[in-house]
Amino acid sequence: MVLFSLVSKQAMANIIPALHLQPKHIILFSTNEERQTAEAVSKLLRKRGFSVAAAETRISAYNGREVYTAVQQELQKLPNAETAVLNATGGTKIMAFSAYQLFLEKHLRIVYCNTADHQLMTLFPNQEQQPFRIVLSAEEYLQAHGYTITNVPTNTFPPETEEFYRRAVIPRLQDFIKFFEIVRRRDLNQRLTAQAEKFKFEYRRKEQAVTLLDKQTNLIARFNGYNYGQWLEDLAFLRIKDLSPDDLLSGVKIQSLHGAKNELDVVTTLNGQIAFISCKTGNIDNLDVHQLLSMKNLAGGTFGKGILVLPDRSAKNFIPLAQDFGFTIYTPEELMSGAIF
Questions:
Q1: Where are the domains of the chain?
Q2: Could you confirm whether domain 149-155+243-335 is CATH 2.40.170.20?
Q3: What value, to the nearest 5°, has the Cα angle with vertex 64 and ends 59 and 68?
Q4: Rounded to two decimals, what is the model's pTM?
Q5: How does pLDDT run across 241-266, given as a tens digit for each residue?
Q6: Distance between CA atoms of residues 240 and 255, nearest Å
Q7: I need a surface site. Which of 12, 13, 98, 110 has the fewest CB within 10 A?
Q8: Which residues lie across from 309 on neighbouring strands?
């Protein structure tokens, strides 16, 4: 099988069908505007052991005749043209229609990636659906979109800390949220006041070392460099861990091809899709909006999802903005039962 694939900004439209179909060779058709995406897709697929080549002729996104001719030229080069399969998922509609028309005329197979139902659909000559199961790491997904991970993110959880969250925090989540809001506002370095004592949690800090104690269970969690929003990121991490994702990372620092930097609280992948979880506990400022915009670009389309977790829904100006960007908004309680993918 030789897979003909049309490139667009949604790199997964090219990667998922290739990983599912396992073709002998892949030919990528891209415009000048999507050259970098094509290069990133090629790099990932080659790492996976595929033979990949760029079509000899660059195409224009809205010149159907040019697309038709470029695809036809590549078909003519094949010793066995009947092995060609068109992946019509990517590219502009004009690109897809033009290539589709040629493959119809040649009576060759055409497929489309249905991410909503996790199916690869054969559109021609027969109509059928095949479920796909694709395993991609967060790093692979990010690299396919032109981003590099610049640190060593966390992908494990100390057993003592996990037990503290599961047995002490999650069953009394509202108490813990109220308790930690007092901690955040007072920045206490010693025993808390009576106002906080009623929640039966204790917070101790010595320089960068933080100890959390639950007086009801006597469970303890120890941290080094614990920030005031860490508990929310930890809850998100544990919630997703229970879903058995393909990959799960927290504290991910990334950099784009142009040098733009960002940090992602929690990143997870499952069956070719990715979810970015941003956790905000303090005051929201312009930097948070910038990070949200960056995440929107990564999570845009049907292959990614952006989730914003807030202690409550009091951020009246920020929440509508996040919703306009297509983010799902969760409070901690909603997160523990809400959909991730």
A1: 2-133, 149-155+243-335, 159-230
A2: no
A3: 75
A4: 0.87
A5: 999 999 999 999 999 888 888 888 99
A6: 24
A7: 110
A8: 279, 330
